[in-house]
Write a structure and sequence with these properties.
Length: about 150
């Protein structure tokens, strides 16, 4: 009985080794479909549009985002404009952010003057709220600060 089990195991191992040593069973005409795309490969417009957040595609197949300024947050679209909003400064792990008055929103300005880098001071501010990219986790929403003044409440 042990000889039969040993023989069966040996035959199974032989088949496994044979199967693993065979080259790919994908026909050569289908291998092109399995090729990983490389930079510079043409991407269909519908795929590029879904990947690049519905940005219009130029004749070269490159997304055209339009006018966007670049700062410490990179190139991002403006999603909202804030004018004369009350808030306060909050230190989050060494990063100074501006919180809205109710504390529901936090904004991360690129260049906050040292004058305002004090936890808890009350401010009025204006600026542009910038987009957050898909799957991006941030301490505060990217923000392009246009104006800030200290309040004395």
């Amino acid at each position: 009985m042990k000889k039969i089990n040993l023989l069966a195991i040996s035959i199974c191992c032989l088949f496994l080794v044979q199967a693993c040593s065979n080259k790919s069973s994908v026909p050569s005409d289908k291998k092109e479909m399995l090729k990983k795309p490389e930079i510079g490969d043409d991407v269909p417009t519908d795929v590029a549009t879904s990947i690049y957040d519905k940005a219009p595609i130029t004749k070269d197949g490159v997304p055209q985002f339009g006018e966007m300024e670049e700062d410490c947050h990179g190139k991002r679209k403006v999603t909202q404009n804030l004018e004369d909003v009350s808030g306060s400064i909050l230190n989050v792990g060494g990063l100074y952010v501006i919180t809205s008055e109710g504390g529901n929103n936090r904004y991360n300005p690129c260049e906050l003057s040292n004058k305002y880098k004090k936890d808890g001071i009350q401010v009025r501010f204006s600026g542009d709220v910038l987009e957050i990219f898909p799957n991006e986790r941030l301490v505060a929403t990217p923000f392009r600060l246009k104006n800030i003044v200290e309040r004395d409440d």
